[in-house]
UniProtKB/TrEMBL annotation, chain A:
<feature type="region of interest" description="Disordered">
    <location>
        <begin position="160"/>
        <end position="188"/>
    </location>
</feature>
<dbReference type="Pfam" id="PF01466">
    <property type="entry name" value="Skp1"/>
</dbReference>
<dbReference type="GO" id="GO:0016567">
    <property type="term" value="P:protein ubiquitination"/>
</dbReference>
<feature type="compositionally biased region" description="Low complexity">
    <location>
        <begin position="8"/>
        <end position="25"/>
    </location>
</feature>
<comment type="similarity">
    <text>Belongs to the SKP1 family.</text>
</comment>
<comment type="pathway">
    <text>Protein modification; protein ubiquitination.</text>
</comment>
<comment type="function">
    <text>Probable essential component of SCF (SKP1-CUL1-F-box protein) E3 ubiquitin-protein ligase complexes, which mediate the ubiquitination and subsequent proteasomal degradation of target proteins. Regulates cell proliferation during embryonic and larval development.</text>
</comment>
<dbReference type="InterPro" id="IPR036296">
    <property type="entry name" value="SKP1-like_dim_sf"/>
</dbReference>
<protein>
    <recommendedName>
        <fullName>Skp1-related protein</fullName>
    </recommendedName>
</protein>
Automatic annotation (TrEMBL), chain B:
<feature type="domain" description="F-box">
    <location>
        <begin position="5"/>
        <end position="52"/>
    </location>
</feature>
<dbReference type="InterPro" id="IPR001810">
    <property type="entry name" value="F-box_dom"/>
</dbReference>
<protein>
    <recommendedName>
        <fullName>F-box domain-containing protein</fullName>
    </recommendedName>
</protein>
<dbReference type="InterPro" id="IPR012885">
    <property type="entry name" value="F-box_Sdz-33"/>
</dbReference>
<dbReference type="Pfam" id="PF07735">
    <property type="entry name" value="FBA_2"/>
</dbReference>
<dbReference type="InterPro" id="IPR053222">
    <property type="entry name" value="Zygotic_Embryogenesis-Asso"/>
</dbReference>
<dbReference type="Pfam" id="PF00646">
    <property type="entry name" value="F-box"/>
</dbReference>
Length: 188, 344
């Protein structure tokens, strides 16, 4: 489970009250890091859970932060909505140190949420979760006709593609002309 | 899943590719019709299918056989002329298998030729072989147009269900054979409409990769010696004598039929070959299926378990052949004997 701190006010995660009885060797205490999304809500996540994210794992691997330093320097992911980051953190916690199952049925059913989740997961480079998300995207069109797929996935028609391409060329031409004119002005 | 939309193309391209690769072949095909860009995307995935079958059986049937998933079939209306330059009103799409599922798609504004090309270009064919199947009781007039669509190497099926083919079927079978012979390296043919002989135009002396000949009731030793095929299956409706088989094997040992890899002969069981005659005068070594299973290729397949006897013989240059004999098998309600010669 993740602990969510609303700004800086929420409760700290519960510490284990009893030590394991049969521990053969003293366990290295798990380190924790802090992340927040667009909504600034800070999530405390263990380094083990964050290993799922190649991006964050790369960021933290050489930091050697103390608990206080980590708390004072949460990783900001301003491009990720708070509820999406929460989903990602929950998934990482649930699958910490475990082999990932072949399917994950807990992904969001709403298409907007799934879209944002795919973008976030891709950005954070969480390979296994991205695989689940892509399967979910594929399942959206299971048994659908070409017309239905075009509608669900908002695929532009050939005419729309051509118009967009023309428009892009026109814009690129204008920008190039503008740059030439500016360079000529500078030269004068 | 809620009814809202999902702007797939706003995802990074590598994520789109990943999502597309998660899709089944049928949905990939449906997506490929969404736009020209979608077609390009699907092609760039290099998805593999096993083979592509074009069948003319009253309607035009295009079937994509996949390696591990269910085959997908598209069925189109076809007029008597076999005009492929027209659109089919609807397209019936089926996922074949135990629980067959069928869907109706629109014709996507494409003619039958355009459908053919579209489906053919989407995937890589592992067999690199296009299979074309004709039924003699469902004639199509415009064979030239059909041939122009096909690749240089095809596997040609000429199927007949009628044991007594009438003149029209005979003429049609002949036309199909002659039209597609230049492209055919694999041939599956029922000889009913061909008067049950293989004395067909340009049949002998041709380099065949594979032959499957059914209803053959006249076949001489000379025909077998002239045969230039890597693999052949003959379903004989008469007794090809054990003496002739013995002669054939002796000549094979001296170097005849050098391309032969598989010869599979199926007989009515009353004419099962006599092994003492077949191997007379040929040095042989009786072997077991278990011993053969340790060898590669065909020997590891389960069908050889059903054979009664097997023998090893060698060509004079040292090449090994294994002869399998089965004296009795019940196949399709008929009793038959089988002889297989596999050249290592």
């Amino acid at each position: 489970m993740s602990s969510t701190e609303q700004g800086t006010s929420s409760a700290a995660p519960a510490e284990p009250t009893t030590a394991p009885e049969s521990a053969a060797a003293p366990e290295v205490p798990e380190s924790f890091y802090y992340v927040h999304g667009k909504d600034k809500v800070v999530h405390k996540v263990s380094a083990g859970a964050l290993q799922h994210s190649a991006l964050i794992h790369g960021m933290i691997s050489n930091l050697g932060y103390t608990e206080e330093q980590a708390k004072a320097n949460p990783f900001p992911f301003e491009n990720i909505d708070g509820d999406i980051l929460q989903m990602v953190v929950d998934w990482c916690n649930q699958h910490k140190g475990k082999p990932t199952p072949p399917e994950d049925t807990n992904l969001p059913k709403q298409k907007e949420k799934l879209f944002d989740l795919v973008l976030a997961v891709n950005y954070l480079e969480i390979k296994e979760l991205l695989t689940y998300c892509c399967k979910q995207v594929a399942m959206m069109v299971k048994g659908k006709s070409p017309e239905e797929i075009r509608e669900i996935w908002m695929i532009p028609t050939d005419a729309e593609d051509e118009a967009a391409e023309k428009e892009a060329k026109k814009r690129a031409g204008k920008e190039a002309a503008g740059e030439t004119a500016a360079a000529a002005g500078d030269a004068k | 899943m809620s009814n809202s939309k999902f702007p797939l193309l706003n995802l990074p391209s590598e994520v789109i590719d990943r999502a597309l690769k998660s899709m089944d072949r049928l949905e990939l095909i449906a997506y490929s019709f969404a736009s020209k860009n979608a077609t390009k995307q699907v092609k760039s995935l290099n998805v593999l299918i096993q083979c592509f079958v074009t069948e003319f059986a009253g309607s035009l049937i295009l079937t994509l056989h996949t390696v591990s998933a269910r085959a997908i079939q598209f069925r189109f209306d076809l007029d008597q002329d076999g005009n492929l330059n027209r659109t089919s009103e609807n397209v019936e799409v089926s996922l074949l298998g135990v629980a067959e599922e069928t869907f109706k798609w629109t014709n996507q504004g494409k003619t039958l030729i355009e459908w053919f090309h579209h489906l053919n270009q989407l995937f890589k064919h592992s067999a690199r072989m296009s299979i074309v199947r004709f039924h003699t009781n469902q004639p199509v007039a415009n064979l030239g147009d059909i041939r122009s669509l096909l690749p240089k190497r095809i596997c040609l099926y000429i199927s007949t269900y009628n044991p007594e083919a009438d003149d029209n079927e005979k003429k049609y079978a002949q036309r199909v054979y002659e039209e597609f012979l230049p492209n055919a390296t694999y041939l599956y043919i029922n000889l009913n409409p061909f008067n049950n002989t293989i004395y067909l135009k340009d049949f002998r002396f041709r380099n065949w990769d594979f032959l499957d000949i059914t209803q053959l009731n006249h076949f001489r030793l000379e025909d077998l010696l002239e045969l230039n095929a890597k693999q052949s299956i003959f379903r004989l409706s008469f007794n090809f004598s054990s003496v002739n088989l013995n002669r054939f094997m002796k000549l094979w040992r001296k170097g005849s039929n050098p391309r032969l890899a598989v010869l599979w002969m199926k007989y009515p069981s009353r004419t099962a070959p006599d092994v003492n005659v077949v191997l007379k005068g040929i040095p042989y070594h009786r072997t077991t299926v278990d011993e053969l299973k340790k060898m590669h290729g065909y020997y590891s397949e389960s069908w050889i378990d059903s054979f009664d006897d097997c023998f090893k013989i060698h060509r004079n240059d040292g090449t090994l052949a294994v002869i399998f004999l089965k004296l009795f098998a019940r196949v399709g309600g008929l009793d038959e004997a089988q002889l297989i010669m596999l050249v290592a």
